[in-house]
Amino acid sequence: MVKNAGPLIIIISGPSGVGKDAILNAMKKAGKPYFFAVTATTRPKRPGEIDGVDYRFIGKEEFERLIGNGGLLEWANVYGNFYGVPRKPIEDALGEGRDAIVKVDIQGTATIKHNAPEAISIFISPPSMEELRRRLVERKTESGTDLELRLKTAHEEMKALPSFDYVVVSQKDKIEKAILQIEAIIKAIKSR
Questions:
Q1: Smallest Cα–Cα separation from 163: which of 88, 101, 112?
Q2: pLDDT tens digits for 152-173?
Q3: What is residue 112's three-state secondary structure?
């Protein structure tokens, strides 16, 4: 007999520039039935980003207030800016029976897995470190020093791969393949 699992927290993580946003944006555009958590951050908006869609851009004082009142599922200081996942929207989605997809960094994954061990973690991996470097250079959002810091961090983050439940390799121009793999993982878990 196949039983269906309740709503899941699905963590999507991986190095900067690997394609996490492209994958999640394609899932949203396709109308996938998931709740997509919007991370709060104190970093400045990049060109083309929309508040409340890409991130929830807030001041440091408001962020600290959320930390103080337990309003974040997890939070971290990354590259000198604060990032965190507001708790209430996730709880609301789960309460409605919807799976919640949360995009966080490696630190955030560990925190969520500690607080919610039933959460499913999926590491989005580049096909190679050379390909990751090319993607970061092409996106033109970091200077030379920041680029090198992100690549150094990516090398460290790759070491966390064995701690994840699943790995999906993000191939260039094959976003749909990554989405199908993520959905197959979710379906398999729900069919247990």
A1: 112
A2: 888 888 899 899 999 999 987 7
A3: helix
Range of the domain at 52: 9-190
Domain count, the chain: 1
Residue 1 lies in a domain: no
Q: Give helix then strand counts, H and E, for the chain.
A: 7, 9
Antiparallel, parallel or unpaired: β 35-36 and 9-13? unpaired
Residue 125: closest CA among 176, 183, 171 = 171
Q: Do 70 and 87 meet the contact criterion of CB atoms below 8 Å apart?
A: yes
State both tokens at 159: 């070491």
The pTM score is 0.85
Provide the token pair at 132. Answer: 């990751």
Is residue 2 assigned to a domain? no
Residue 4 located in a structural domain: no
